[in-house]
Amino acid sequence: MSTIAVKTNETPIIITRGIYDLLKIFINKKKLSRHNELKLDQELKYANQVLRKDVPEKIVDLNKKVKVKELETGAEYEYNLVAPQKARRKHNTLSILSPIGIALLGYEEGAELSWEMPEGVKFYKILEVTPLA
Q1: CATH class of this structure's domain 14-131
Q2: In CA terms, which of 57, 65, 90, 102 is 20 to 30 Å from 15?
Q3: Where are the domains of the chain?
Q4: Distance (Å, rounded) from C-alpha 93 to C-alpha 88?
Q5: pLDDT, tens digit, 9 for 90 and up, residues 26-59
Q6: By the 8 A CB rule, do 60 and 128 touch?
Q7: Contacts of 11 (CB under 8 A, 6+ apart)
Q8: 119: pLDDT confidence band, cut at 50, 70 and 90?
Q9: What dihedral do alpha carbons 64, 67, 68, 73 form, nearest 10°?
Q10: Partners of 76 in the β-ladder
Q11: Which long-range contacts (CB under 8 A, 24 or more apart) does 75-79 make?
Q12: Cα–Cα distance between 71 and 98 in angstroms, integer?
């Protein structure tokens, strides 16, 4: 039996109870790669659960605009994270349950993280987190 080494951020993620429960269901449905499943499970084990009104402003959460930099290429991306049922390409919004949405949830502006994408493990830095207008 092989084991996968999964590095998590030293600072616990901060998420709401609702998002915590949603991510646990997502893990149980086996919708993630083994690497991401182990990483997310570890993150959730130490997560700080708060009420929606108590989520700090600079934490990636529902209805936030997030600017990230892919550390290997230097490419920068901006994501408008919304609930899955509200995600629309024509409105430039992305579901919090998309691969990058799950990867970023609960992290603070300035954090660096890794997540396995279809093309391999990618490393990101969160440059900016702001509320959606």
Answers
A1: alpha beta
A2: 90
A3: 14-131
A4: 5
A5: 899 888 888 899 999 999 999 999 999 999 999 9
A6: no
A7: 108, 111
A8: confident
A9: 150
A10: 69
A11: 76/127, 79/104
A12: 20
